[in-house]
Amino acid sequence: MSAQSMDDNTVNERQLEEQKHFLKLTGEDEKFVAELQSSFTSIASQLIENFYDHLLSYTTTSKFLKDPRLIARLKSMQIEYFSELLSGKYDAEYARKRLQIGQKHQQIGLEPRWYLGAYNIYLQECFPAFAASLGKEVPKQLLSLLKVILLDIGLTLETYFAESKKSLKRHNSELEQALQMYYHTEVKSRQYAKLAGHEIRGSLNAIGNVIEEVVDDFSEEIPVAARDALRSANERCHQVMKVVEDILSKSDLTGTPQWVETGRLLAEIQDRLPMYADGTDVQLILPSEAPRVWADPIGLREVFANLVSNATHHLSPTGGRIEIEAQTTRERHIFTVSDNGSGIPPEQQTQIFQPFYRCDGRNHDGKGLGLYFVKRITEQHGGQVWVESVVGKGSRFSFCLPTESLWEPTNHAFKNL
């Protein structure tokens, strides 16, 4: 049972109460503990001094205590720690603070056995003082037993952590193998796609050449209607060839990842706005602050360029407004490209990320691949893309990238995707 939730800074109160019930920690127990507060106050300063003298005498613990200012701060915090321990109030806030202490110990590499050892030192000095305040004496046998109990708990916890490390290492190995398999499968798929694309392009080129030769050599013998149909077919061949070339040029949607300053990248997008707007009067608003992300810069630029270009096609011919926003949470970088254009009907919103899909009524000659590439690139970065749109008011295209993605510099399986 654990009182800690998925978020390290929050506490599951139901589980906390269940844990207290399992330990048979009752309201009467809390009252009895609170009665020891005054006894601790009388010995607190000397107890803390003795404790840190002991810590500084051991190499393993003294390495954490080289700064005198840190020691002074820790002594003050230690008194507060035990005051809360003896408060008799063990609610969610109490548990949250204890969990934070555990996090700090883990971050600095302090093993549980040293934490339990420190507790033993405190208790060995506190118990006689508590007993004296009650007019009694603690049997030495019980103090000795307490030492053995804490030693036993420490050894058990070490086993738990050792097994957890083994399990984590095994899962990491399995994940690495899965990533390697995915990488090789992805590479082969792209190779096949390139080969097929080149074959299609070559065949279309040959067909187009034959049509041109037929039209040129037999123009007088061929009826006008047939000649026009052949020329139309030839134009269609060239259009399809252009689509194939676009696919081939973007078959390597993601290159070598690196740290990307998105603010600088967005400034480049703004410089190219006239090309995307194609003569339309467009106002592009950039975020005041933009995060630094780990990504393929070419792929990320393609995502922003396609989203901005897509937004311009929804605007009125007289112009409009596009705004890019950026925010970062604990797990994700979220970017949003919004416009005040015509919007997208609900029945089309589920299809716009499919290849070759074009919204009805769009005033441009695109091939319906831009948003498809946005989706592919985003997903290959470990993120996702979605849209919110209201007809007549505009659209909001958002995509997210993990703050700690599959694209870490040490992940060789994805470095060359």
From TrEMBL:
E.C. no: 2.7.13.3
Gene Ontology terms: biological process: osmosensory signaling via phosphorelay pathway
Cited Pfam families: HATPase_c, Protoglobin
Recorded coiled-coil stretches: none
Keyword entries, A-Z: ATP-binding, Kinase, Nucleotide-binding, Phosphoprotein, Transferase, Two-component regulatory system
An example molecular function term from Gene Ontology annotations: protein kinase activator activity
Residue intervals of the Histidine kinase domain: 195-405
Top-level enzyme category: transferase
Superkingdom of the source species: Bacteria
Tagged with keyword Transferase: yes
Recorded catalytic activity of this chain's protein: ATP + protein L-histidine = ADP + protein N-phospho-L-histidine
Name of the protein in question: histidine kinase
Organism: Thalassoglobus polymorphus
Gene assigned in the entry: gchK
